């Protein structure tokens, strides 16, 4: 499927391989200054590399919101759901500090504490800043970040800069009030509810102003955009250009999540989500201008753990109540572990550069690109059993190297049992999620899924267990090339259900 | 003269800090308005603040017991479409 915007910009289309995000030499942060790199290299949401090693958590201290978005329903709370705006327990700042320290002591790879809702953190300034104030005192080794719709941002920049918060995410879905009115039905502004285009205009002004103010303060800004087909999809490449010009350093385009059962405007009105291809095409179209984030998991406002996992159940209020935390001791342990991870990341990066140099010398293949799915539970290696994977990372292999494209959840952001779906088996759903991939790399795989994958035209591969992902993907790509599989066009994939 | 919050309140805390009369308080299950204190914001604002930020249709009633934000007014979902969608989900 093609987006018109791609046709307007031939440089970023076709292979989709932009100079700074492609190949095995450059990682996603390759072109950033050392100073910015140092700020993000252990931040899982800001560095693709880091997200294999470091964990994050959100504390749900901010329930109030000052706008309404058509993809959000403020009534929603489901323990099986994993998506933004959903939480199980609202915390007071005091409970949030306790929970954060409990997690930091138990999961030493947790480096980042974010406040992301379930409302808008800056619409709850007292609760949000009380949490930040206390954590910067009591747990100084944790990075603090915040995610906002931007309406109250200009008024909060001063306070944010006081608390050592050097990462802010603004959700910017448009810079055009007419489009904005189709996404935001109203905002609460200067003691009034303001509907339609006027409300959207104010919101957009505040977002842009806030972005400029943060950049002026030297605070790193990531911009999130929700891709809504037919509403802002053709407009987001323009948004990407504008926010980059203003100094945002990373753009994260996420697919709309819209299901009738969520009770959101888009869900109930039948607005569709983008396909995987549409999303990847748009990310490619933006990547000519902007450093793109492709590893976002659209997590809950109370998520805990590595991206893609949620260990929130281990840290419910009743459980943390009984935990005795010696944070001084925990900090020492954390420091040792963080240094070991940094060491490991550094040596992997060096190995990557060397491998890429070798790759550059080798005879250049003239073969088509291939998408492969990888099952991993972290550390940047293939180390997960096919049947245990709740998500797959999608890589593109081509003669130019290997690059990370996206992740795909096997259970489509819902982990309820089979009875809550449409009767399709978990395996069928998983295979459907891998559509477009020609191989799947995992540590092990059972007979039944092996057969079903083969029937669906996806080659299972368990021969690269514990190998670094990029190396294994390139090895499989070369095997495919040698076997002559890449000379012909991509085979038509068969329906599996 | 007082507004009332009913049990569809989702405890989002948005209204509480806005009340110029400090009439809103968190009760056991959800937020409540002390009718002795509520002025409906007369003299302070043109519109009642709690009902102007509340995201839940029907959760705040005026003195006559009528929803200040009726169905469809905040989400933009026509009530008949919402009913249809919910019926479809039930049927599954």
* pLDDT averaged over residues of chain A: 83
| Class computed from helices, strands and strand pairing of chain B | alpha+beta
Radius of gyration of chain B: 15 Å
Helix content of chain A: 25-40%
Considering residues with a beta carbon less than 8 A from a beta carbon on another chain, report the largest interface and each chain's count.
A-B, 28 and 25 residues
**CATH third-level topology of the largest domain in chain A:** TIM Barrel
Mean of all residue-level pLDDT scores of chain B: 94
Number of helices of chain A: 15
Number of DSSP-assigned strands of chain A: 16
Give a quick account of the main beta sheet of chain A: strands, pairing sense, barrel closure.
8 strands, mixed
CATH architecture of the largest domain in chain A: Alpha-Beta Barrel
Rg over C-alpha atoms of chain A, rounded to the nearest angstrom: 22 Å
Could you name the key traits of this structure?
heterodimer, A: 497 residues, TIM Barrel, Nucleotidyltransferase, domain 5, 2 domains, eight-stranded mixed sheet, 15 helices, disordered N terminus, B: alpha+beta, Alpha-Beta Plaits, two-stranded antiparallel sheet, 2 helices, elongated
Please provide a brief summary of the model.
The complex is a heterodimer of chains A (497) and B (92). With 497 residues, chain A is an alpha/beta fold.
Could you characterize what this model shows?
- The complex is a heterodimer of chains A (497) and B (92).
- Chain A has 497 residues and is an alpha/beta fold.
- Chain A folds into two domains: 18-321, Alpha-Beta Barrel (TIM Barrel), CATH 3.20.20; 363-482, Nucleotidyltransferase, domain 5.
- Chain A has 15 helices and 16 strands.
- The longest helix of chain A is centred in the C-terminal third of the chain and has 35 residues, at 327-361.
- The two termini of chain A are 22 Å apart.
- Residues 1-28 and 412-421 of chain A have low confidence and may be disordered.
- Chain B has helices spanning 49-53, 79-91; strands at residues 4-5, 24-26, 31-33, 60-61.
- In chain B, strands 1-4 form a two-stranded antiparallel ribbon. Chain B has a two-stranded antiparallel ribbon with strand order 2-3.
- In chain B, a hairpin with a 4-residue loop joins strand 2 (24-26) and strand 3.
- Chain B has a single domain (4-91), classed as 2-Layer Sandwich (Alpha-Beta Plaits).
- Chain B has 92 residues and is an alpha+beta fold.
- The mean pLDDT of chain B is 94.
- The longest helix of chain B has 13 residues, at 79-91.
- The relative contact order of chain B is 0.20.
- The interface between A and B is medium-sized, with 28 and 25 residues.
